[in-house]
Every structure is written in C-alpha cells, then in structure tokens.
Amino acid sequence: MGKKQALVCAVLLSVTLTGCGAKTTPEIIMPDKPVQSEVKKDSGKKADGESKASGKSYTVYLVTMDLTDSYWKLIDDGCKQAVEEFGNITYKWIGPDAHDDAQQSACVEEAVAGGADAILIAANSAEGVNKSLQKAEEAGCKIVYVDSPASYDCVTALSTDNNVAGKTAAETMKKALDEKGITEGTIGVMGVTKDTASCVAREEGFREAFKGTGFKLADTVYMEDDADNVKNAVKDGMDKKYVGFFGTNEGTTVSIGEAVKEAGKDSTVIGFDTSDAVLSLVSEGVIYATMQQNPSVMGHDGIDIALQALEGTYTETNTKTDTGVTVISQDSM
Hints:
By secondary structure, this protein is α/β, with parallel strands linked by helices. The protein has 2 domains: 58-159 and 296-323, Rossmann fold (3-Layer(aba) Sandwich); 161-292, Rossmann fold (3-Layer(aba) Sandwich). The chain has 10 helices and 14 strands.
C-alpha cells in the first residue's frame, strides 16, 4: 500500500470512528444558542436485556431520498446501532430510485402498509410528500425528520443547521481563495434539485456570506439525478475561468471533483459530506475542503426519540436539534 493509499485509509477509519483524526482542532459549527439533545438521559438498554420500550415491539421505517448516496447509508448505520441497542424493534430502510416526490410518497405509503409505528424520513421536498405523511400520521405513525424536513408536523427534526453550514462553507472558500491571492471572480454553485430543502438552505447560506465581496456567484446548476449535468457545467465554468465551485451534497461534490481532476486544471472546490470518494479527492488536493455532517447521530437519536414518543415519554412536537458540521481539509487529515 502506497503512502497516499495509507493516508486515505487512515482518514476513512478516523472519520468513521471519531469524526476526524485531525492534527489541528477542527471547526465545529453549532447554533447561536446551545442546543440540548432531545434524547433523554435515561435512554438505552435495560440491564435485563429488554428494550426501554417495556417489552413492547415496534416497527420503524427509514425513508430516504434514494438508496444510492452513501450519506444515507450512514444514517442507516445509526438506525441499526439504535435497533441493536434498544431491542424489540423491527427496522427497514427503503427509498425511491430517484429524487422524486411521487416515488418517495409511495415509499411512505409502503411503510404504513408494512405496519410502521414510526417513520424516519429525509424529505425530498418541503411540500411534495406532505399528503402521504398526513396519511401516515392518521394511521398512528410517529414522524421524525432526519437531515431534510418537510413542512408537515413532526415529533422532531434532527439535521445540520444547513444555512449556517453553508456560510461556513463560504468562509472556507474565501480562506482558500485568499491563500491564492484571489479576491474576485465567478464561483459555480451546484445543487441537487430546486426542491431539496437541505441543499437549498446550504446554498442560501453560502450566497449570503458572499454578499458585498468582489465575487460573483453563478446561477445554480442542478444535478437532477444526472452527474453529467454537473460535470458539463464545471467544464464550462473552467473554460470561463471560474475561480471555484461549491457542491451542496455528496453527489455534486464528487461530480465537481471528478470533472476538475479529469480536466487536469487547478480550481478551488468546497463540498459537503464525507463518502470514500469525497475524502479521496480531498486527500489528493482536488477538493480543498468538505463539510462533514453527523448522519449516524441523526439515525441513532431519531430512532431513540421515535421510541420515546411511542412510549409516551416524549410528548413535545416540532422540536429541532442541530447535529453540527466539521470542516475536513487535506491539512486536517
């Protein structure tokens, strides 16, 4: 194994176990006011091996935007950890083939038909799945949002404060450009879909942070489940001398990085999420930095709170918990 391969493997292991094996203190983004976890302190497995659900059995579904993005697998991992920890839970992860409201709504209906007592969902859009969620609630399901909320009422929403995280990405971009002596120019912005609320919020925060500077932010290019949409836009942007590119999720980040690498040109890339592909591009210096979220915490604590709500020990509604982000760069690996 070469030195570069060893570096990537070490980073992947450290991210999995600790979030970041940083040589320097990473930047942790939290809300303006401290947020207490919604998980109660007495949660967890009983000494006799029974779950905290007093011996009752529950069925919980995780519904994500698709089943291909490795980010959702990390939420699934957190859910599985909670299921093993608490016991007496039948758990299933399902999702559509593409980012589509109708397909995701069908998945919610599948969960209800499968006897779901609670549904953890990363909503594809703010409004598009509300009718199916209403049907789920009417059937007695507890609704918990992970990563991306819809506008329908829920028990709680666990996610990154995406607007703040977008601003942090922008400040990281400014720092990287300043190191190159660049104080003006155009920056490309890549999104998932126009309705993906979490990514839209990141974009808004990113754009807000660049107001009043010498930089211009290009119109957002949306992937729409086709990586070539992003890759072609990046190639066009490089031809037009864009000084950098911002990807709002794992898929757009990888596509930007691959396009820049294939072109053999230097550009400043800031992205989101920490899949193997993203971290490899960061370690190679193709991507300057990526924002690491905490999806496994969303999954674990989402299951925990859903279980408490089913037991009647968690009675609040529409609460929010910011699970934070960490800036991962080549220097901090």
